[in-house]
Design goal:
The protein is an alpha+beta fold and 419 residues long. It is built from eight helices and 25 strands. The chain is globular, with a radius of gyration of 26 Å. The structure holds zinc ion. Residues 264, 281, 283, 285, 364 line the site of zinc ion (ZN).
Length: 419
């Protein structure tokens, strides 16, 4: 890995230094500078006196503490302070780790460190008065901003091309979700299209720990280039915006199920495969195996969860005064989704099937605008958040800086911007 100093050999030194400084100022605001400590804790304890337990399914805090020889009263005290001071009420299997430290092999536990994420540790120590105290420590992360470019080849999926470009799976999934607001991966993706992603990698103690956020995306889609930039507004909230500063996150998704192939389009009149006569197809059909989870295309309130002869099991969601969506032929409904339930975008509302008038398992998806069926693939969808005048001005300056940073990183996959 090359550090920032290696970029200094390039021609545009001054411009780069300026653009990096501005980028760092603009992007670094979120790096919380308080209560930091380098790398991992417990350097003063010898390895013999430390044991690490990875929480597995069926483990409870009480059980793990009892295994370490702690008594009932201490266990209750630790659970209470962990809940009140660190907000940890339950342990998550295959995620959380707990370190137990002792002065010597046969002495009692003197310190417990609960590790719910690579970037946060909760230290519990027993004071001389016998009371357990809790202290949360944020681990310092060293953020590298990297740039990857790729191209769709014949027979490629976006995922395949993305992994060939060296983009990690988690980042690709985020990029996919973001692009899904603007693109239809089934119809807008062709061989020869290029794409790029600017994103964060988080390091600690010189080792990569995980990936951060997607900062910018570009995709040469069939219906025009799609560009998105992550931007932090003056109110502190962040979102994604196109190159002109319009909100890129739409209130509804054109394709609720990622990567689903369209088997039938919206049309004014087509021959119905079961009824045999011509009638309008008021939605879009996506191929989906029976049992495929169906996410809500947008946040809203469930107004129907029912069965009829045509739609089979269906759910209808009202999103706002203007828009409703309908999902048909479900094999079953999600348990917690009833009429009146408020759902968030992406929440699973049911599972694909072939109930009602259907020739095979698929999702029939409708968007209804002001009571009229519209084509989900072409209807103009409202952005969740657009920028005010002041934020828009800032965004356009910020976008220039990001674009310049991209130019510097382009074609040099070993370079990164350190923040
Ligand atoms: Zn249909």
């Amino acid at each position: 890995m090359k550090k920032a100093k290696d970029i200094m050999t390039t021609k545009n030194l001054t411009r780069l230094v300026v653009s990096m400084a501005v980028l760092m100022t603009l992007l670094a605001a979120y790096v919380v500078a308080t209560n930091r400590r380098p790398a991992f804790i417990g350097g003063d304890a010898t390895p013999e006196c430390r044991s690490v337990v990875v929480v597995t399914s069926g483990d409870t805090l009480s059980k793990l503490l009892a295994d370490q020889g702690l008594g009932h009263n201490e266990i209750t005290a630790i659970a209470n302070v962990l809940k009140s001071d660190a907000g940890i009420a339950t342990l998550r299997a295959d995620n959380d780790k707990i370190e137990f430290l002792r002065d010597s092999d046969d002495s009692p536990v003197s310190k417990i460190v609960v590790i719910p994420s690579p970037w946060r540790q909760v230290e519990l120590t027993c004071g001389e008065d016998g009371a357990w105290k809790c202290n949360t420590v944020d681990i310092e992360r060293d953020v590298h901003v990297v740039y990857r470019t790729g191209e769709i080849l014949d027979g490629d999926s976006f995922y395949l091309a993305g992994s060939r470009a060296g983009i990690p799976a988690g980042i690709l999934a985020d990029v996919y979700d973001l692009l899904a607001f603007e693109m239809d991966f089934e119809r807008d993706v062709r061989a020869g299209q290029k794409f790029s992603v600017l994103y964060e990698e988080n390091f600690s103690g010189g080792e990569k720990v995980d990936n951060g956020r997607v900062i910018a995306i570009a995709f040469e889609a069939l219906r025009g280039d799609v560009k998105m930039y992550r931007f932090r507004k003056s109110d502190g909230t962040s979102g994604y915006y196109d190159e002109n500063g319009n909100g890129a996150i739409k209130s509804l998704k054109r394709t609720p199920i990622n990567n689903a192939k369209i088997t039938s389009n919206f049309s004014g009149g087509r021959k119905h495969p079961v009824l045999g006569y011509t009638r309008a197809h008021k939605g879009v059909d996506f191929r989906a195996a029976t049992g495929t989870p169906i996410p809500a295309a947008g946040a809203g309130r469930v107004v129907a969860r029912s069965y009829n002869r045509g739609h089979g099991n269906f759910v209808k969601i009202r999103h706002n005064k203007e828009f409703e969506t309908l999902y048909a032929h479900m094999s079953r409904f999600a348990k917690n989704v009833k009429v009146g339930t408020n759902v968030r975008q992406g929440q699973i509302i049911g599972y694909a099937g072939s109930t009602g008038l259907s020739t095979g398992p698929h999702l029939h998806y409708e968007i209804i605008r002001n009571g009229k069926h519209v084509n989900p693939m072409t209807v103009k969808l409202p952005a969740i958040s657009n920028l005010g005048t002041a934020d828009k001005k800032k965004f356009l300056e910020y976008r220039k800086v990001v674009d310049e940073a991209i130019q510097q990183l382009d074609g040099k996959p070993n370079l990164f911007i350190q923040m």
